[in-house]
Specification:
Elements lengths: L1 H25 L3 H24 L5 H20 L6 H5 L2 H33 L9 H36 L11 E2 L5 E2 L1 H9 L9 H7 L1 H8 L1
Antiparallel strand pairs: 1-2
Length: about 220
């Protein structure tokens, strides 16, 4: 399911990139227009082909991540339509994590932030001119980092819960006599040790009334008296 969503999102992103390129060409920004159209068409055609042939490749997720990096650089540098480009960049962490997972998505977030920081430093050295001043750039970093932290924490927690649910839903091979459980390596463990190791569950031992009557009748009898 995630793979198909990634393909569709990549096709949409490629189409948007082509649209940005056309707008830039019409406004005379050829330095941005031609690369955007080339990247957009490459992503669009390749991913439509993959969607039609129904074969799985690693290209869609990688393509969309590269496109998003280039798009974020352009939006921070140029400002986009009505200078709203920086707001689009805030949504990109969710795109990285949804297409590449938590760990790999975090690495792509680091690449994106690093590229924007490089642009910011170059602008402060008067080598290039970006669309946003110091205050806007720092405000963006704070909001971006906060949104990424919330999303990252949620995804990590969700994966832990899913792993625990899958573990609890598994069929456990248990001995009919001693009630020991066999793990995936073929080793047998007591019920207490298995649950403690796999689910981090601790036990507090006691004696139920039936077992008390059977094994300790003298004590149970005295309690009745």
């Amino acid at each position: 399911m995630r793979y198909r969503i990634t393909l569709i999102v990549t096709i949409i992103t490629g189409s948007l990139l082509i649209a940005f390129g056309i707008v830039n060409l019409l406004t005379g920004k050829y330095y941005a227009g031609f690369p955007e159209i080339i990247l957009g068409f490459t992503a669009l055609i390749s991913n439509i082909y993959i969607l039609i042939v129904k074969k799985k490749y690693t290209a869609p997720a990688l393509t969309i991540n590269v496109l998003v990096i280039f798009l974020s650089i352009y939006l921070y540098w140029d400002g986009g339509l009505y200078n709203t480009g920086i707001y689009w960049c805030i949504a990109f962490p969710g795109l990285f994590i949804s297409t590449r997972g938590v760990s790999r998505g975090a690495k792509w977030v680091a690449v994106q932030i690093s590229s924007l920081i490089i642009l910011f430093i170059l602008s402060r050295l008067s080598i290039i001119t970006v669309a946003y001043n110091v205050f806007e750039s720092f405000a963006f970093l704070i909001v971006y980092g906060f949104s990424f932290y919330i999303l990252y924490s949620y995804e990590r927690s969700r994966k832990v819960y899913q792993r625990e649910i899958r573990r609890l839903n598994e069929m456990l091979p248990i001995c009919s006599f001693c009630k020991r459980i066999r793990d995936k390596n073929g080793k047998w463990h007591s019920l207490e040790s298995y649950l403690n190791r796999e689910a981090d569950i601790d036990f507090s031992h006691g004696v139920c009334p039936e077992c008390g009557e059977k094994h300790y009748p003298e004590f149970m009898g005295s309690e009745k008296d």
